[in-house]
Design a protein that fits this description.
The complex is a heterodimer. Chain A is an alpha/beta fold. Chain A is built from 11 helices and 30 strands. In chain A, strands 20-19-21-22-29-28-27-24-25 form a 9-stranded mixed β-sheet, with helices on both faces. Chain B folds into 2 domains: about 80 residues, no CATH class; about 200 residues, Rossmann fold (3-Layer(aba) Sandwich). The longest helix of chain B is centred in the C-terminal third of the chain and has 26 residues. The radius of gyration of chain B is 22 Å and the shape is elongated. The interface between A and B is medium-sized, with 24 and 38 residues. β2 of chain A pairs parallel with β8 of chain B, so a sheet runs across the interface.
């Protein structure tokens, strides 16, 4: 025997009522003192046995009446699950698993509420119809069990595709009764541009809207993470998706390596302040603590590397009157863009400042010679592990510089100024750490770099040519000295000589050469965090707070919900279509009124009447 | 002796009143004087013939009591005074078993019986009848033998007030032990509910009848012992044994009533056959009935 409304099985508990009454009846008695019980005992002898039998009969009758009442609600019927009506009925339950379903629904997510409803529907309908469950977002797929329903993160909604799939599914195994039940939040973005025209009159459509309970569902979509340097204050900017009326967001927490950062008053303009103490990998978490925050979108995890702040000494060989004609202008801008950096610029004429302090990198731009004192300092600097980057101008003191070449502290010998024609870089060592970034053309095309008025250079025997021009002349040369390392670029990056400084390849290549020299990239561990996806390749650029947008599982957190009527209209469901259930999730009830052929209810009604009569008869006679 | 106010005589005929009073003396006087006030003067009242002393004649004294001989000798008028003689002996037995404590109304059966005993004593004392009271316990240890003297009534009242009612025992054996004490023929009155082995008890009482005594049995029951409450579930408790029975009175009431009535009819019949007066009473019966019954019996005896 099966039950249509098996939920009413709970009504069986009501049988306890007459039993309790029966038991309580025997307990609530008054005391009466008599001189002798002999007459009472005598009187009882004849009465008691008969009364007990009647009381028992009454109890049994009342219990049976309750049982029959429960059975009437249960609506039992004979037959197995494969009965007539089931073979003639088919239902497709379309479950919205798009990102927007992660919104709040009272104390749980809309998705959880949706799954509960699906479970409820299955219990209700499985006895009367063949059920197919399908999860849809941008795409649609059939699932065998509710447990297989998963939120499709980062996806949108495509109602048209889902409905067409369900229609095809039903029409392929055509039954007398066919239903589509759709559970969704009715996102406008998922509606088809044109209404669905191929509706079959045989298919009934049921809509269960599951709408976010809060007015202002909020989720963290992105967090803009700066390229960070140790000892420097940075700002992280969460990008929030707010559905509904905007409200003030003031409770955003930043956790770095599990430790809560002291964020005073959060504002979208100010962001989250963060000052890393030292270089290395940091794991962070931005948490939105708001009652309306989305269950799955109120946290944003990230992992980023903090660079140690390096000191760079830029030595200008020539200081022009106009910054646009200054040969070192672009180099200076490239290195000194970050006001927090410890970089500084000096002119060769101020020699007493040359290498006075320990520097990580010395950049020579358009420096045509070094005096004896400077050479000595330079040599010592290199021996101790210092690094140097030369941008050669077109007015070099060949003798002076070649003496450095002789002393093995300059990687190229300057022969003569080459022709004035422009020459692109034709070859480069793509395996070299300083240039391998550009194997991916998206990061920059080295062949687009064009030099002019380049000295004809002879590389040192200990030097390595990293790139050369189309006439074979070295363009970038590297050489070690002592513990130190130096690189020469055969161009001063002056706008008078080349357009390279204003091209998009200037900053990337200067940055890569610098990082290579000071070893920034060597300290990074090449591992990717599991919970977020950082960009694999470093950002182009040298210093400065380069805002990097990291997309982590972006969900469909911005909900724009349509009205039910508009929703149905957009789907092409006409008003004349029968059996459109417009119930909310709490009140949803489907197919309750279907009457089964082999239901036993009428027998139970007759039994109920019989037992009611018996109850009345016994009650009357008991008295 | 204190004269009882006329106004209160009638009120003490009401069980609601006399059962509410703890003062047995007050109850006895009230009940007796109230009862007597409605009767014609009896020739037996104030009967005496034993000379006691003389006193000065006072205006209004009956001349038949004047001692003419003494007037002849002394030329003074003296009235002869007589000591009243005992007319009969009254033996009152009071059942002290626990069942007498049944109290589902104004008071217990024992309290009612005690008031009746006190009233009878008072009446007997007024008639110069020698009254003895015997408390029927498991043995005869608390009793006052018949006597006619000043303060006898108060002795009886004191005995009643100090008595202890409890337990279950065969009062028939106790009665048997009293028999030798009742050597002078008189009236034997038993106050009991007759719940304890009444067959044997009647046989014992028949023995008194056969010895020349007049026997009156006042069977005192609680109203609820005759007729159970109309409806409801009750736990009935036996006062003597403590045994309990739960029952719905609605089912048993009629059967119970019939059984009790049948039992009482049997008692009545047996008593009649034995020549014993059986007076059924409940604790809401006026005590006047007890007095009248006694007086009627006294007439017969005399």
């Amino acid at each position: 025997m099966q039950f249509i409304n098996s939920i009413f099985l709970i009504g069986l508990l009501a049988i306890a009522i007459p039993i309790i009454i029966h038991l309580l009846k025997n307990r609530k008695v008054q005391k009466l003192w008599l001189g002798s019980l002999r007459f009472l005992i005598e009187a009882q002898k004849s009465k008691r046995r008969r009364k007990n039998i009647k009381e028992l009969l009454l109890l049994i009758t009342r219990c049976l009446i309750l049982l029959i009442l429960v059975a009437l609600f249960l609506r039992p019927y004979l037959g197995s699950k494969q009965d007539y009506s089931k073979t003639e009925s088919s239902t497709v339950i379309l479950v919205d698993v798009s990102g927007s379903m992660t919104g709040n629904y009272n104390s749980k997510s809309m998705f959880e509420a949706e799954k509960d409803k699906v479970e409820e529907l299955i219990k209700e309908l499985q006895a009367t119809t063949n059920i197919t469950i399908a999860a849809f977002s941008d795409d649609i797929y059939e699932v065998q069990d509710i447990k297989d329903l998963k939120i499709a993160s980062g996806t949108g909604t495509n109602y048209g595709k889902a409905i067409k799939w369900a229609q095809n599914k039903l029409m392929n195994g055509k039954k007398k009764q066919m239903d589509i039940i759709m559970l969704t939040d009715m996102q406008i973005s998922g509606l088809p541009s044109d209404a669905i025209t191929e509706w079959s009159n045989l298919i009934n459509f049921h809509l269960y809207p599951i709408l976010p309970s809060g007015k202002n569902n909020i989720g963290i979509n992105n967090v803009i993470i700066p390229k960070a340097f140790a000892g420097t204050t940075h700002h992280l900017f969460p990008e929030l998706n707010i559905s509904g009326d905007e409200e003030s967001i003031d409770n955003v927490q930043l956790l770095i390596n599990g430790k809560k950062q002291n964020v005073s008053k959060f504002s979208l303009e100010k962001g989250l302040e963060w000052t890393p103490e030292k270089s290395g990998w940091y794991e962070g978490e931005v948490i939105l603590e708001n009652s309306d925050s989305w269950q799955f979108d109120n946290k944003y995890y990230f992992r980023t590397y903090v660079n140690a702040l390096k000191s760079v000494l830029l030595v200008n060989g020539y200081k022009g009157e106009s910054k646009y004609t200054d040969a070192s202008y672009y180099v200076e801008k490239a290195f000194l863009a970050n006001e927090n950096a410890k970089n500084k610029s000096i002119n060769t004429k101020v020699t007493n400042q040359f290498l006075q302090e320990k520097e990580d990198l010395v950049v020579f731009c358009d420096v045509n010679e070094l005096n004896t004192q400077e050479v000595e300092k330079y040599k010592t600097y290199l021996e101790d592990g210092g690094t140097a980057l030369f941008f050669l101008g077109n007015k070099m003191n060949e003798n002076k510089m070649n003496s450095l070449f002789v002393d093995d502290v300059f990687p190229v010998k300057i022969d003569k100024l080459a022709d004035t024609s422009t020459r692109p870089i034709l070859k480069w060592n793509s395996e070299h750490d300083a240039l391998k970034l550009f194997n991916n053309r998206n990061n920059g095309d080295i062949s687009s770099i064009i030099f002019s008025e380049v000295y004809q250079l002879t590389p040192h025997t200990k030097a390595t040519v990293l790139a050369s021009l189309n006439n074979g002349n070295p363009a970038i040369v590297e050489m070690n000295y002592g513990k130190g390392k130096m690189i020469v670029v055969a161009n001063s990056a002056s706008r008078e000589l080349t357009d390279w400084p204003i091209s998009r390849m200037f900053l990337p290549i200067v940055r890569e050469l610098s990082y290579y020299l000071i070893g920034l990239s060597e300290s990074k561990e090449n591992k990717e965090p599991e919970i977020c996806s950082l960009l694999k390749n470093p950002e182009p650029g040298i210093y400065g707070e380069v805002r990097k947008v990291v997309n982590h599982n972006p969900t469909e957190s911005s909900i724009e919900i349509t009205e039910k009527e508009d929703f149905l209209k957009a789907l092409g469901i006409k008003q004349v279509q029968k059996d459109i259930v417009e119930a909310s999730i709490e009140k949803a009830s489907l197919s309750k009124n279907r009457v089964r052929k082999n239901e036993l209810s009428h027998y139970f009604v007759i039994l109920l009447l019989v037992f009611l009569g018996m109850e009345a008869f016994i009650s009357y006679n008991l008295k | 002796m204190q004269k009882f106010p006329e106004k209160e005589k009638s009120s003490l005929q009401d069980p609601d009143v006399f059962m509410a009073l703890d003062d047995l003396e007050l109850v006895a006087k009230g009940v007796v004087e109230g009862a007597l006030s409605g009767l014609h003067r009896s020739k037996f009242i104030g009967f005496s013939n034993e000379f006691d002393s003389h006193r000065d004649y006072q205006l209004g004294d009956d001349l038949k009591h004047l001692n003419w001989n003494l007037w002849g000798k002394t030329d003074k008028l003296f009235i002869k005074q007589y000591e009243s003689d005992t007319n009969l002996s009254l033996y009152i037995f009071l059942d002290q078993s626990g069942s007498m404590l049944t109290n589902n109304g104004k008071g217990s059966k024992w309290a009612y019986a005690a008031r009746a005993v006190a009233s009878l004593c008072y009446l007997a004392m007024k008639n110069r009848d020698a009254t003895g009271v015997y408390l029927l316990e498991n043995s005869i240890k608390n009793f006052i033998p018949p006597a006619v003297k000043m303060g006898h009534f108060y002795d009886v009242v004191s005995l009643l007030q100090k008595s202890n009612v409890k337990g279950s025992f065969e009062i028939t054996e106790t009665i048997e032990s009293i028999v030798p004490l009742c050597n002078r023929r008189g009236i034997v009155v038993l106050f009991s509910d007759l719940f304890d082995n009444e067959e044997e008890l009647l046989k014992k009482m028949e023995y008194f009848k056969m010895s020349g005594h007049e026997v009156i049995i006042f069977q005192i029951l609680d109203p609820l012992e005759l007729d159970l409450p109309e409806k409801g579930e009750y736990e009935f408790v036996d006062l003597e044994t403590g045994k309990t029975i739960k029952a719905d009175v609605e089912d048993l009431r009629e059967t119970y009533k019939n059984t009790v009535n049948k039992w009482r009819e049997g008692l009545k019949k047996r008593c009649k056959n034995m020549g014993i007066d059986w007076v059924p009473m409940t604790t809401d019966t006026p005590l006047k009935d007890v007095i009248i019954e006694y007086l009627l019996k006294r007439i017969i005896h005399y």
